[in-house]
## 1
Amino acid sequence: MRLVTLAWLAFLFSIPLWMSDLYVLHVLIMTGIFIIAAMSLNLLLGYTGQLSLGHVAFFGIGAYVSSLASLGFEAHLLPGVLVKMEPKPVWLGMLCAVTIAGLCGWVIGRISFKVRGAYFVIVTVSFAEVIRLVALNWVELTQGPMALNNIPALRLGTPELFELSFLRKPANYYLVLVVAVLSYILIRRLVQSRAGRAMIALRENEPLATSVGVDVTKYLVLATMVSAAMAGAAGAIYAHYVRIVDPDVFLFIYTVTMVIMVVTGGKGTLAGPVVGGLIFGLLPEILRAAEIKPEVQWVIYGVLMVLVVYFLPEGIVPAVRNWRRRHHEPATAAAPPASIEPAR
């Protein structure tokens, strides 16, 4: 299994070396960004069982915070109180984006995990809508519908010695791939730790987990904070890649896209969001390349999603795992034990 993983990583890292079509690289970059966001949502939905339909808020917060820190801004926080920030290096803006998105996740977790079920969903959706309205109407800070543009690309190093620029698509592809791999490793280590086992226990049976001393609020808030920070990182990468951000980044369809990737790939699995993201991130572009009419494309997209959910209710990754388990069991495992005759 480890060899298969290494082979996949080697293939993914080799793509810019032989792929000359920049549009394909662009599609892979955008798909990778949403895979990172889907992995962050899976930490909540898959490992704690909490459905957040406002997850795009953290993605948008990361995009706006990193953009504003890199561009600099002046805005009146209160009447007579002017807040001014000079432009900062892009890497520092991205760190600010991750930090502030994580803090927003902590605040929302502390507030919303006092309720459960539909109430939690309502809180997250409301939070996303409030943030969207702030981005739309606080024109002095966010430029509103006119958007923040000319966002600088990420640069590492110093111009005098060595500078690595992420202006071109191959460099951005590697950036997204590295962040995706690090996010995968972080989630894996977290879910295999004591905190991760506590999250899974809460998902399976919250009253039982509480009865044996699991602190419900503590672990749910931890999951929300890490998930929000990771979504903020995805948003920051998105902002410095497309170099323009407007309030449409908070559209509900982006949350729906993340949920589709998680559910169809297999929630509560490490590879689920990756598989779901690759399928439903690349499928629209494949259908478009086939020159199928747009309305037919959406019909095929929807039908495929319904078929996956209907025939593979646990998701693609758990279904493949169960199939492999059934077909790789030793033949002797099902055979009755041989009888031993008593010695004469």
## 2
Amino acid sequence: MEWIEELKSFIPEEQIKTTLADRHSYSYDGSFGEYLPDAVVQVKQKEEVAAVLKLANMYHIPVNPRGQATCLSGGPLPVHGGISLDLSQWPQHVEVFPDDLIAVTSPSTRTGKINEAAEAYGLMYPPDPSSAHVATIGGNLAENSGGPRGLKYGVTKDFVIGLELVTPEGEIIRTGGRTIKNVTGFDLTKLVVGSEGTLGVITEATLKLLPKPPAVQTLMVVFDDVRTAGAAISKTLTSGILPSKMEFMDQACIQAVENFQPAGLPVDADAIVIIELDGHPETIAIETERVQDIMENIGAVKSTIPETEAEAAKIWHARKQVSPAIAKIKPTKVSEDATVPRSKIPDLMDRLDVIKEKHNVEIVVFGHAGDGNLHPNVLCDKRDQEEMRRVELAVEDMFEAAIELGGTLSGEHGIGTMKAPFMEMELGEVGLDLMKRIKDSWDPNGIMNPGKVFPEKGQKLVLRNE
């Protein structure tokens, strides 16, 4: 193809991959579906990104930005072919400015590395998605990722104060800056964060940091009824205490983890809630006692306070093992992130039980219950076409349930290809059209990550090989 030859005039040839084997390795992510790009370009500096986008505009070639491809919603998939723009080979770089409480980082930097760099100065970068040890900050920015600490500290967008961005037409711009307060004009920074690569390519980010709390305390609370656990979560959050983390695991998750990597979790419990409090040691001591009282008054069976950091770490490690543990139960795992107002958590639990029975599917539930962001995972086998059709119907019902309860399609995984068909259900026709017009004004030739966020004609959720 002519445009591939032109690429070689300004991108080193070893950074351009066109063999079938190379392209196939870029055809999938952590979700469903495989789409083959026409070429892979491994960019390592902003000037290369700008040149690629200018060429792509000239030839109307789709460009699909990609980091480590841990995305669970299809964000980096080259749905319409074109270029997979690989930013994972960009040199990782993070510089901390402790007096300003900020960090400046390249898009390829692993999210966990940013927090490690901050900790050297007694600071922290709060957003902590479970994939932080492998995911790039560029991908987190694109998807507006969350994590357990989102309950107290917020998600990625709450810590981004400035960006360097290559626009879809290949122009390099800066949004925001290095100041915490900035109300100059439209907030383009917040518009770009969470836009899933449809409005440009992020090449640098300026992130807000916070002082690291001097102490933390973990509690594990056991329940013999899922709805009671949900009520206890809501009661705690309206008591004036704001934990940094509040995680939920149902019995299926508990048993899966114990079968995978035994951690001493109570396998006979219907649910457990894992809580982390952070702050001044004296405050934590008071709050720990109050949380225990609240939980027990609501109906908790038992509460456990780890005596050492190692014991606490073991509990949190068990929580992080849920996803790989349940993946051992069946060959396929459909991971969702239904999110509802906190008061509606018990109602969502009930709706998930109904969906499970209605479609005869296996659903396990865990997640960041403190902010209403649950992860119902459907366990199945994608080789079984009939089962996968039931899974599709179940997932559709999950989305509908979340929205009917005043919630949203996604708390942290993003829309991508997986949830695009349901966008109008949440935003309405006018709201969706307004977003589309913003996209069209930024990207007049429609080259930036097409097939994501916005539903295409006749598009529906398909998890089978059709």
## 3
Amino acid sequence: MSTESRAIAGKLLQWFRQHGRDLPWRRVNDPYSIWISEIMLQQTRVKTVVDYWHHWMQRFPHVFALAEADLNEILKVWAGLGYYTRARNLHKAARKIVDEHAGAFPDTYSEVRALPGIGRYTAGAICSFAFNQATPILDGNVIRLLTRLYGIQENPKEKPTNEMLWGLAAELVKTADRLSSGRAPDCAHLNQALMEMGALVCTPKAPRCGECPLQHHCCAYRDGLVESLPNLGQRASMTPRTFAAFLIHRQGKWLVRQRPNNGVNAGLWEFPNVEVSDGTLSPSELLSQMLEPALPATPEKLEHVGTIRHSITRYRITLHVYHTSVPMPKHRHHHRRHSSGTWYRPSELEGLAFPSAHQKILRRFITTPPSTK
């Protein structure tokens, strides 16, 4: 190990022991609990994850409970975190752990890496946090810290630079392993320190360099490059998309539909909606074109009740929400379920898994309906 790596690793460990956040999944060394937290933390803020993690652990306290659970219930518990493939992969991985490992979470990097939904970063995080193994991690926070610390001006998304960063992360965690007295989980703490420093000190904007224990080692600080690193290239602009969503009411029930089992938001429920591309059709015409042939009766007056705004990945989404009522069908053979969706009471809707934007519609317009209804 180099003298510099030894100094950097030592300062990171000392800083983390004094300043690391007291997060619930850091109080355990159960790999299942840590795995759930790491999957939830992908693309999601720590503040948001804490409550979700507690709720998840109450409902699915161990891998057997998760493996045996119905996917719809899993998606309901996950609802609001987005990127629902993560939840589906958790279910698949839990079943694999039960089937192939008798319910014992695997403790080698290769076996952890082989689980559905677990990539290089997540496998390294689980192995270091749960088993104190010298496996490196590299997420956005760590990339920002390392590019500034070592003055790396190339784009970290490019493969050669990315591999260089993985190598630097590996060197630091292996150095921590060699420095370890055996009494403390230094591999886990080193990786957590890298993440914490990126999240709390070496932030994207207005980094707190004066509080950084690595200031004297930092090439970006020395050369005045802190604000320009990491060099991520030109950021893709947000693409606006506009939808019309329809709240269709019939004697205390609302029409919803389930998305197909492939594609975006697979298996989740939503209110009937359609993308508005050019504005040539009115909301009534859009509804008629999409649903009216399959409805049991002609909808009554269509009324705009509000707007929901939502952003995901590179899309800025606007949903204009419209309400209408339809009378009960004259023929009793018209069942609760038909080609356009299913009629549910509000209490039943609460038990379904909706994507975030449609969950907002449910909370705003049905759970607490506007007076216009």
